[in-house]
Amino acid sequence: MKILHLSSEKSWRGGEQQMAYLIEELKVLGVDSCVAARSGSAFEKWCLSNKIPLISIPFKNDFDLSSALKVKAYCRNNNFDFIHMHSSRSHSLAILANTLGNTVPLILARRVDFPLKKNYFSKKKYSHPAIKKIICVSNKIKELVIDSTNQPEKCTTVYDGVDLHRFDGLGAKGTIRKEFGIAADYKLIGNIAAIAPHKDYFTFLDTVKILSQKIKAKYLIAGEGPLREEIEKRIIELNLEKDVIVLGFRKDVENVFADLDVLLYTSKEEGLGSTLLDAMAYGLPIVAAEGGGIPEIVKNEFNGLTAPIQDSKKLSEHVLRMLDDTTLREKLVNNAKNFVNGFSKQAMAKQTLEVYMQSSNIK
């Protein structure tokens, strides 16, 4: 089997990591992968360094005729079984290529729990007959897609997978403390996520404001994104400049994990949250908002503590409880380590291959 993966995003975030895991593990399963990546993107660089067959295209917009024609030509010169679309723009480009005469059937990945748009173009995109299956990263997303498309037979859930051994032996405790001069008697509480609207760092900061009046701690934001300037302004408005440290994007996530006492994950919308799976594998205590598919992996009182979205009061109470109750914390961390074993990148790839095989029989 041979798959063309479409990657239209410029930066490297959770979706790109999942795509990389999928391509690596499909190779182990005997599936060849090629990629059409955005020119100059992080994923293009990854493909080049890992010698993945690649074409680079602009992905300028949803109606980029030249990119669609390049996809069509690449398909004409290769015997692909499916095009796997990994983002909204790649979805649009694949449909456009099909309209221009490409005949390769399509598989769509849906990773975000934003409501589907109700305009004519969106409805046509999702109901297009060339799409054989829509792979949803959580049951929450599956419900949303079915509600919008009324095509339950096309929708299936394949959870994200992580490298369960990605951080084995890694993470030097004290690295972040030393870098920013944080004393040992301060607790460290942080979030590792893009600074984007759906990650809801405003609730993170509201929670920090409550906690700052009750405990001696520093608060870390490990991520980059379009709302960074706005979040930094909010930090000043809340007089939290001495408490909150914006780390920006970090390649050494393991060092952040090693120093955190609690991961405080405040997303109001989330497909699933692969960072949470990584944190479980690492053994990091989790307090999370119940956005999107998060409750499917972080189960309150079992492997973490959860609160309704934007409920900074409840989130702060959970953080305090996680810090104060050693027995509870150890139970939740141990349960999380066992639970996350079912979310390996190998399992994700096997389930995706099953979807490909099932779709091969759909006319």
Helix content: 40-55%
Specify the CATH architecture of the largest domain.
3-Layer(aba) Sandwich
Largest sheet: 7 strands, parallel
* Lateral arrangement of strands in the main beta sheet: 3-2-1-4-5-6-7
Q: What order do the helices and strands follow?
A: EHEHEHEHEHEHEHEHEHEHEHEEHHH
Q: How far is the first residue's CA from the last residue's CA?
A: 17 Å
> What's the number of domains?
2
Ranges where pLDDT stays below 50 over 5 or more residues in a row are none
DSSP strand tally: 13
CATH topology of the largest domain, anyone? Answer: Rossmann fold
Broad CATH class of the largest domain: Alpha Beta
Number of helices: 14
Mean pLDDT: 94
User: What would you give as the CATH superfamily of the largest domain?
Assistant: Glycogen Phosphorylase B
Shape: elongated
Determine the strand fraction and express it as a percent band.
Answer: 15-25%
